[in-house]
Amino acid sequence: xxxxxxxxxRFGEVTAVADLSLEVATGEFxxxxxxxxxxxxxxxxxxxxxxSPTSGRIRIRDRDVTSLPPQRREIGMVFQSYAxxxxxxxxxxxxxxxxxxxxxxxDIARRVARAIELxxxxxxxxxxxxxxxxxxxxxxxxxxxxxxxxxxLLLDEPLSNLDAALRERTRAELRSLVKRLGITTVFVxxxxxxxxxxxxxxxxxxxxxxxxxxxxxxxxxRPATPFVASFVxxxxxxxxxxxxxDGEEVTCRLPGGAYWRVRAVAGRGASFxxxxxxRVMTRPESLRVSRNGAVGGGERPDAIPARVAERRFAGATTxxxxxxxxxxxxxxxxxxxxxxxxxxxxxxxRVAGAVAWAFPHGPEGE
Amino acid sequence: MDDSQAVSGGTARTASAGTTAGVRPVPSLIxxxxxxxxxxxxxxxxxxxLIWLVLYPNLFLLADSIRGEGGGWTLAHYARFFKSNAExxxxxxxxxxxxxxxxxxxxxxxxxxxLFARYEFPGRRIFSALAAMPVLLPPLVGVIAFLFLYGETxxxxxxxxxxxxxxxxxxxxxxxxxxxxVHAYTMYVYFYLFTSAxxxxxxxxxxEAAAALGASRWTTLRRVTLPMxxxxxxxxxxxxxxxxxxxxxxPYIFGGGYRVLTTQIFASKVNGEVGLVAVETMxxxxxxxxFLVLLHRYEGQRTYTGTVKGTAGTRRRLGGGTGLRGAxxxxxLGVLGIGSVTFLLLPHLTVILVSFVPEGTWTTExxxxxxxxxxxxxxxxxxDRLVPxxxxxxxxxxxxAANVVLAFVAAYLLARRRFPGEGLAxxxxxxxxxxxxxxxxIALATTFSTNQPLAGRFILIGTVxxxxxxxxxxxxxxxxxxxxxxxxxxxxxLEEAAASLGASWLTTMRRVAFPLVLPxxxxxxxxxxxxxxxxxxxSILLYTHRTRPISIEILxxxxxxxxxxxxxxxxxxxxxxxxxxxVGRRFMD
Lengths: 366, 589
Known about the structure:
The structure holds 2 protein chains of 2 kinds.
Chain A: E1 2-11, E2 14-24, E3 29-33, H1 40-48, E4 55-60, E5 63-64, E6 75-78, H2 90-100, H3 105-118, H4 134-146, E7 152-156, H5 164-181, E8 184-189, H6 192-198, E9 201-206, E10 209-214, H7 216-221, H8 226-231, E11 236-246, E12 249-253, E13 259-264, E14 277-282, E15 287-290, E16 304-313, E17 318-323, E18 331-335, E19 345-350, E20 356-360
Parallel strand pairs in A: 3-8, 3-9, 6-7, 7-8, 13-20
Antiparallel strand pairs in A: 1-2, 1-4, 4-5, 9-10, 11-12, 11-14, 12-13, 14-20, 15-19, 16-17, 16-19, 17-18
Helix pairs in contact in A: 2-3, 2-4, 3-4
Chain B: H1 5-16, H2 29-35, H3 37-65, H4 76-83, H5 85-118, E1 119-120, H6 124-130, H7 139-150, H8 155-164, H9 176-201, H10 204-212, H11 217-246, H12 249-254, H13 261-270, H14 274-301, E2 316-317, H15 323-355, H16 374-381, H17 383-416, H18 422-434, H19 437-447, H20 466-489, H21 493-500, H22 505-533, H23 539-542, H24 550-559, H25 563-588
Parallel strand pairs in B: 1-2
Helix pairs in contact in B: 1-20, 3-14, 3-17, 3-18, 3-19, 4-14, 5-9, 5-11, 5-13, 7-15, 7-25, 9-11, 10-11, 11-14, 13-14, 14-19, 15-25, 17-20, 17-22, 17-24, 18-20, 19-20, 20-22, 21-22, 22-25, 24-25
């Protein structure tokens, strides 16, 4: 449906998007996720036609739209600021795209009514848009983008101006609406939780590059780079040395003498050999804080000695922040509320079956 | 009196102080041309128009100043200028009167601003609003109001003469001091407004900090308040100086034999001294440009802002105390208040009063013995009286319509697009504001006096087109900056939203940009329209009997001693101006 082929965008010296390729299937909900300044909004604006790529092509269906102006691309877009026309009422805002395309009166009335009904704003047709609440404005913006029935819908952080409770509700409504309409959607956000809640697939971007594209599960359980691992969910990084290589898995020696068998994520042609320094990454839920184990190894070969720096109750779980000798970064672990107290010397055990990965120690590492 | 440019100037300044819109991307040139063909063509058109009408005529002026009688280049005109005592005296007169105008305007405007900003007393709000009253006087009307008040047969002059039983009037409203009086009356508004704005920005914390450090109130004023106001005071000084250099009405009416540069240009023009006129005009133009540059520099420095937002300075209550001292303060302030309001409103009231005096009924009495609406009746019934009104309305409408179109397009380009020659376009848009009306009129008269279509010259002198053209050029800065301010206020994303909805560029302009810019643009256009309606300085050099505007008619009524007729025109202009300001303010909000 939507094809981005080797897109590059440079603003003077600055490369905003570098060699990005991506395919979005018909009816798919794809999210561009990344920190601010990673190039995700620039990518979206290139798809919309507000920026032209320095190189590369954009196709919608089988039409090359790279050099087409926005008005001829047949896309719908919802802006972060909504960009509602302040001098027009709700009806006229929604009708704007239809009028611009020269639809006839009856057609406009019918399709505006339908769009307004889709976002559940019946009765608000003649309200001034500035008199509406943030959530209502957001829905007008969505109805306006949907009214001309574009094959592709672009959403630029449309939920970021809503308060937390409304944002969560709107998320669910948005996803069910675009899925019901079967419209191909590209959504931009820096919020991982939002991306998980909405998307069929997520494209993670960092520093102008695409890091990984995949389903939320895949990003979480099989991150391709340390960046993805740490940006999608929480991550612990432990310095380690490769002891043995066994196909896709390696055995690593961790600080404190523990041995872990983890999945090797080589990436970009790198490979592992015995004696390599690597970074082993785990999720906080993969570590169990345990007080009873004696420090020094021997009892459990996978236990890492650590000291509790802080304990914070977070509802369903309790978050422990720990410092481990030989580990430069702070570690996070989730556990029982009474597992340990700040200042306690504990061991971190690897939860049975929990995945962990080894990344090469290189410039790519964080 | 300080010539309509002043009003436009003030507004244009404020507008240009607006912040720049968000970051605009910099696509490659070819890309830009391909993607924005319409705006590229527009940019080229705007630039050409500005070069043709704003820059080109001034180059002819320059050429005329160094062209000999029989052709060929010469510095003879400059030599003549420097050898002539009359010329040098006029130049010197312009300079010292302008400097003195700065001093006197500051002496009135700054204390007034302090009074209203720092002290609370009954009627403060009304007074502070009234303090800007002189702005509400069309240039020539203000001058004739002074004539009716302080002139040889003026109310005040006669009043004092009768009161003291003098043989002759106690003073003659003539010469440099008369000019200075008018300048101080009209131009103190700049100091008043700039200082008020400066004081509003200055936050109390600074003053309190100084006090906490042990500074006395005088030390605080000298070491903290005034230095922080320096940019505002500097800006106002430059503006007043520039405005008085270009002032024509006051020296023309009250100068008598005393000539300043603008009136000297007028005299030379009447005598047909082409080369000398060009030299004089060059001096006037160059000095104005110099001050524009200085002002621009100052503008950059005017960045002292309070760190705390929204803390309006607290006002000390005056006359709130009990006992004799409080009562005396209240009384003093009451007298001062009524006195100043009377003084500020007197010119307006005088013009209104005189407009009800039928021709020939008022001779030696202190107050006119007969009042009627005859002047207004003749104004609207006698065709020859109505002609100037129709002329002015028509010419102002033509000019303003052109202003609106150019301003919208130019503001769009400046706010939303980058194009080659952008800096030049900006400069040319500001230029007419800095150039006195006299310079503009002379430049236009020079350029559009022959028919050379290939050189972009046509005979417009003596036609109905020359004055609308002059009004149009003079108002380019005002209307464009009004539109620009509006463009910068609305989010460019709205235009992107329209484009994403399939609207063509033209549709986006028509259905989104234009309606949103309209309020600001309309307000600017209204001000421009009123300015053009009462325009005098350029008109007097360009009019013909058939195309005479209101201001010229006022002058000729005055010459024929029909004060009532002149005043009726004046009232008409004041009313139109007041309506426009009122409507304009509503639009702006």
